[in-house]
Amino acid sequence: MLRIARPVLLSLLLCAAFLPVSSAGDAASDLPPNLHWWVVQQTENGQRADFFIVLKHQADLSAARALADKKDKGRFVFSALTQAADAAQGPVRTWLDTRGVRYRPYWIVNAILVQGGDRALAVEAARRPEVDRVEGNPAIRNLLPRPGAIDEQAGPAPAAAPGSPAAGGEPDAVEWNISKVQAPAVWNLGFRGEGIVVAGQDTGIRWTHNTLKSKYRGWNGSAADHNYNWHDAIHETGSSCGADSPVPCDDHGHGTHTMGTVVGDDGGSNQVGMAPGAKWIGCRNMNAGVGTPATYLECFEFFLAPTRIDGTNPDPTKAPDVTNNSWGCPTSEGCSWDTLQAAVDNQKAAGIMTVASAGNSGSSCNTVTDPPALYLSAYTVGSTTSSDSISGFSSRGYATGTGAMKPEIVAPGSGVRSAYNSSDSAYTTMDGTSMAGPHVAGAVALLWSAHSCFLNAQDDTQIALSAAALDLPGTVESCGGDYTTGPNNTWGNGRLNILSAVNAGCLCTVPGTPAIDGATVPADNSITVSWDAGVPAGETYSVYRSTGACPGGAFELVRSGQPASPWTDTGVSGGITYSYKVAAVDSTGGCESAPSACAEATATGPCTLAPSFAGLESVTNPGQSTCALSLAWPAATAACPGPVRYRVYRSTTSPVALVPGNVIASGVDGTSYLDAAGLAGGATYYYVVRAVDLSNGSEDPNAVERAGAPSGPISTQTLTETFEGAGGFDLPGWSAAALSGAVNWAWSDTYAESPTHSWYARDAGSRGDKVLTSPAFGVQAGSRLSFFHGFRFEGTVASCKDGGTLEYAVGPTFATWTVVPDAWFTANGFNGTVSTCCSNPLAGKRAWCVSNSSAQPVVLDLGALAGQTVRLRWHEGEDSSGASAGWYVDTVVVRDAAVGSTCETGQAPPPPVADSVRFTRSAGNLLSVTYDAASCSAQKVVVLYNALGAWDGYAGCAQADGGNGGSTVVDSTGQENVWYNLLWTAEETAGHPGFSSSGPRGWTVGTLCGMSADDHGRAACP
Questions:
Q1: Burial letters for 87-109: b for 16+ Cβ neighbours within 10 Å, e otherwise?
Q2: Which parts of 238-378 are beta strand (E)?
Q3: Pairing label, strands 644-651, 629-632
Q4: What is the Cα–Cα distance from 132 to 135, expressed in whole angstroms?
Q5: Which of 210, 278, 544, 648: disulfide with 665, CB 3.0–4.6 Å?
Q6: How many whole angstroms separate alpha carbon 903 and alpha carbon 900?
Q7: pLDDT tens digits, one per residue of 117-151
Q8: Quick one: pLDDT at residue 901?
Q9: What is the DSSP string of 548-612?
Q10: What contacts 848, CB < 8 A, 6 or more positions away?
Q11: What's the distance, CA 442 to chain centroid?
C-alpha cells in the first residue's frame, strides 16, 4: 500500500543561526543572542547593512481555517496581518524616525527592513522588548539553470519515441514532459485549469510571449491592464528590466520558462504547459538573478493582496490560487529560514498553495537546505528525467531545520522545453528542479478545475497528488524512507501523475450526477431549470450557465446551495440562448458530482445585456492653451439593439468611485472625449469610461482606469540650476537619494563651477547606489543639456570598478530609467563601461570612469525625446572594494525646455445627462418614457416627435410632465415609424424648428440633450 508523507514538525532549535560572531570592539558575550550572525558580520569595522527587525507580536490566523470561501480567508488574513503590524510597529518606527533611519515596513511577517543600519543600531534594536530577532537581508545570486539552444521554430515535430524528448528539428505539439505526467488525458476529460490563477515570483515573465499572452490575467484580448496582475519588487537598476518595471518583464528567461511550463500554449505546435486554461500573474523577485529576503517577502505580500502598479489599494480578493517558487534563499549565505517561513505559512492560511522546487544540490542526502523548499507548508518538488530516473542534481532530504521528508513528489526537470524571453516565439531547454516545480503548480490547477472539493485546500490536494503519484522503485538510495512504495527522501511519494489524481476524485463521498430534465421559459427574462436528484442524492445543488446553445462554452456558477429542483434564473437577457448544467454537492460542501448533461433555452423579453467593452485606452495631454485632457477608447460591441453610448467618470483620487457624482459626461457618441472643463494645471485626474446600451440602459462593468495631468500653456524656457538655493537647489523638484548603501549625495562647497556650491557623491569604498534627480520638464526638438562635473573613481577605463552615469525616465510615471545613448553627447560623453565583476549596481552600463583632469563641460542633444516629459538623474554606483574621491556635479542647464505654465481653469462642466432614458411600448399605442430626473431636473420635460424624413421641425409635442418626475406616457395613436426626442426645458413648448435628432428608428430613444433655460433649440450634449 502506498504510504503518504504527512506533515510532522520536529522541534529543533537552530541555535547556530544566531551564534554571535566576535569582532573588533565587540566581545561575543556582549552581543544579543537574537542578533543574526550575518548582521554581525556585515556591520564589522563600521560597515552598514540592511537588516530586518522582526517583532514578537504575530497575528493569530487560526480562525481562517473555519472560513470556506477563499476570498473570505484572504480578507481575514490580510486584515489580521495588517492590524498586527500597525499595532506592534508604531514604537519601533517612531524610534527609527527620531534617528533619521530609512526603513520599509512589512506586514506579511510583521517586520521592518532597516536600510543601511550600523552595528550599534542593530544591537539596540535586538535589545528592545517588543523585538523578537534581528536578521539579515543578504543579496543571493541564484544559480539558475542555463538555457540550451534557442529555438524559434513552431511547426509540427518529427516522430519521437513515446515519453522521450524530440530529437532535434521542430518541437512536438505537446512536449514529452507534459505527456509524461498525463496532462493531455486530463484535457480530454474537459479540464484545462479554467478558473484557476497561478502566480510566479521569479526573474520576471515576458508577458507578450505567444504561449503566455492569452493566459495573462491582465490581458482581455484587446488591451492590457497590469494593475493587480504584475509587481516588480526590484527598485534599482542593473538589468534590462530597469527598476520598478510597470509591465511584466524578464531579465533572464528563467521566469518565462517556468510559467510556460505552468500554462503555456500558443494554440499551435508549442503546447508546453500543464494547464492552458488557467490564468497567470507575476512578480519579479530577482535582479539579473540576484534576490534578497526583502524582494521575496515583497512578492509574497503582493500575492496575498495584489495591488495597483503603484503599490496602492491592496485587494486580497484578487489573490492567486497557487504560487510557483523556483528559487532559493540559502541559510548558508545569510537567509533566516524562519522569517520566510512565516510568509509561506500565512499564504497557506489565506488559501493560497505554495509549490517550491527542491533545489539543485544533489545527489547527496540532506541537501534540501534552502527556503522555501524546506518548509512544511510548501509542497516541495524534485526532478526526474525522461526515463523516470531521479535527476542527479535534484536535492534530497531530510530537510534542514525541520527534519521533514522532502521532496514530497517529483516531476520532469531534465531536458524540459518551454518559452524563453529572447523573443515572443523563442523556446529553449533547461535542466533543474526549477523546471519540475511548475509541472506540479499546473497539476494543481488541473485538479482544482476538475474537483472543487480540493479548491484552495492544500493539505487535501497534497494527499491526492501524492497518493496518485507513480512509484519509482528502480531508484534506491540511502537518504531515508521507503524505496518500494514511498515516501522517501529521493523521489518522495513518486512521480506526478495528474490523470490518476483526477480520476481518483475527491477524498469525500461524491453524490451521483443529477439527470437534467430540461430548461423552460416561464416568463420574459426567466429560464427555469429542472433535474432529478443523483444517486446518492446531493444535499444541495449547483447550477452552471453558459451563453450559447449546448454544448456551451465556459460555464460559470450562477446558483449554489440550491436545496432542490427546480430553479429559475431571472438574470437572463431576451433573445439570448443559454445552456445549463447541474451538479450535486455533499453535506460537507466540499465534494461535488460531475456536472449533468446540458439543457438549453432561449429567453424571451427585452434584451438586457451590457455592451462588450475593453475600457479606456489612453489619457493624453493635447497641448492646448488651456487645461485639457484627451480620452480615447476602442469601440464597444452591443449585444442588444443599441445604440451604444459612453459614460465618462472622473476623480482626483484612485480608484475612481463609479458613482453618479463622478460622472462628467454621458451619452458620448464616438470613441474619444476632450475633458476641458474644471481642470487644474499639474493635478492628476483619474478616469474610467463605460459603455451603455441605450436600448436597455445596461452599463458594462469594466473598471479600467487611466490617469493624466494637464500642463496648460507651454512656454519655451532655459532652466538653470546652480545648486545655490536653500537646501541645495534653486528650482523645485530636485532630490537626492541613496538607493542602497549608507552614503548619499551631499551638498558641498569644496568644488563649484558657479559660484560656491555643487552636489557631491563620495566614492566610499562600500557597495553604494545613489542618485541626484532633476524635476520634470518637457523636451522639444531643440532641447540641449549641459552641466559641469569633476570626478575620480576607483579602477581604470578597462576595468571600471566604480562610476557615474546619466539616465532619463519618461513621464507620466517616470518608472523606467535608461542610460542616455553615447550618440546624444556633443562634448565629453561617457569614457567607459562599468565592470560586471564586482556587484556594482551600474554593472554593464556606460558611464564616466577613473577621472578627468579638471572640471569639464558636458553637452548633449535631447531632441530624440521631443514631445515627452522627462526627468534626468546622475547615478553613481560603487562595488565594495576600494574608495576614491568621488563625483561633483554643478551648473545644470536645459535650453529650449518645454515648461507648462499656470492653467487657465475652464468652466465647471454641465450636470450629467442620463443616458438611460428609454422609450418602450407599454400597451397598444402607448409609449412609456423613463428617464433620470434627479440628474437633469427641469420645470418641464417634453417629448417631441415627428414622422421620418421631416426635419424642419417637430410636428407634435407629447404630454409634458414635471421635471421632478421619473417617467411619462405618450399616446402615439395613429403614429408609425416616428422619431422621438426627450427635451429638458424650462417651459412646455410645442414646436422647435431646427431641433433635429439622429437617433434610431422605432420605439427607441433619439438624441439626449441638456437643459436649455433660455431657448428651445438643441442644447449642448456633454
A1: ebbeebeeebeeeebebeebbbb
A2: 279-284, 286-287, 290-291, 322-325, 353-357
A3: unpaired
A4: 10
A5: 648
A6: 8
A7: 999 999 999 999 889 999 999 988 877 777 777 88
A8: 64
A9: SSTT-SS-EEEEEEE-SS-EEE----TT-EEEEEEEEE-TTSS-BPPP---EEEE--S---PPPB
A10: 789, 791, 793, 803, 804, 805, 830, 831, 832, 887
A11: 19
**Residue showing cell 566581545:** 27
Burial class (CB in 10 A: 0-12, 13-18, 19+), 531: buried
Question: Between helices 293-304 and 337-349, what is the axis angle to 10°?
Answer: 10
Among candidate residues 843, 645, 669, 881, the one with its CA nearest the CA of residue 763: 881
User: CA 3 to CA 255: how far, in whole Å?
Assistant: 34
Under 8 Å between Cβ of 678 and 908: yes
Kind plus residue range of the DSSP H or E element containing 436: helix 433-450
Non-local CB neighbours of 202 within 8 Å, separated by 6+ positions = 250, 254, 255, 258, 259, 282, 284, 285, 286, 324, 326, 327
Share of the chain above pLDDT 90, in %: 52
849-857 mean pLDDT: 86
Q: Residue written as cell 499656470?
A: 902
For residue 692, give the C-alpha cell.
Answer: 451603455
Q: pLDDT-derived band of residue 904, with 50, 70 and 90 as boundaries?
A: low
Q: With contact defined as beta carbons under 8 Å apart, do 261 and 271 qualify?
A: no
Q: Do residues 868 and 778 touch, judged by C-beta distance below 8 A?
A: yes
Whether residue 941 has pLDDT greater than 60: no
Residues 6+ apart with CB under 8 A from 825: 858, 859, 860
Question: To which residue does cell 558611464 refer?
Answer: 847
User: Rounded CA gap, 396 and 481, in Å?
Assistant: 11
pLDDT tens, position by position, 332-361 = 777 877 779 999 999 999 999 999 999 999
- Residue 883 C-alpha cell reads as 574608495
Beta carbons of 941 and 963 less than 8 angstroms apart: yes
- Do residues 197 and 442 lie in contact, with contact meaning Cβ atoms separated by under 8 Å? no
- Residue 720 gets which letter from DSSP? E
Query: Residue 307 carries which side chain, given as an amino acid letter?
Result: T
> What is d(CA 297, CA 454) in angstroms, rounded to the nearest whole number?
27
Least confident of 225-239, 346-360, 694-708: 694-708
Distance (Å, whole) CA 833 – CA 837: 12
- The amino acid sitting at 171 is P
pLDDT of residue 815 exceeding 80: no
Q: How far apart are CA 322 and CA 303, in angstroms?
A: 9
Q: In this structure, what are the phi and psi dihedrals at residue 330, rounded to the nearest 5 degrees?
A: -60, 130
Q: Which three cell numbers stand for residue 865?
A: 525625446
Q: Which helix (H) or strand (E) holds 126?
A: helix 119-126
Note whether 997 and 981 are within 8 A (CB): yes
How many Cβ atoms sit within 10 Å of the Cβ of residue 211?
Answer: 28
* End-to-end Cα separation, the chain, in angstroms: 74
C-alpha cell at 819: 542610460
Residue 471 CA, distance from chain mean position: 38
Q: Could you tell me the strand order of the sheet in which 515-523 lies?
A: 515-523, 526-532, 567-569
- Taking the C-alpha atoms of residue 143 and residue 943, their distance in angstroms, rounded to an integer, is 74
Q: For residue 13, with 0-12 CB atoms within 10 Å meaning exposed, 13-18 middle and 19 or more buried, which class applies?
A: exposed
pLDDT at 714 over 80: no
Query: How far apart, in whole angstroms, are the C-alpha atoms of residue 208 and residue 230?
Result: 13
Phi, psi (deg, nearest 5) at residue 118:
-100, 180
Please provide the average confidence, as pLDDT, over all residues in the chain: 82
What per-residue confidence (pLDDT) applies to 983?
A: 46
Q: Where are the alpha helices (DSSP H) in 696-798?
A: none
Residue 91 main-chain phi, psi, to 5 deg: -60, -40
Neighbours of 498 (CB within 10 A): 31
**What's the pLDDT at 692?**
92
In terms of DSSP bridges, do strands 884-900 and 818-819 run parallel, antiparallel, or are they unpaired?
A: unpaired
Between CA 394 and CA 390 the distance in angstroms is 7
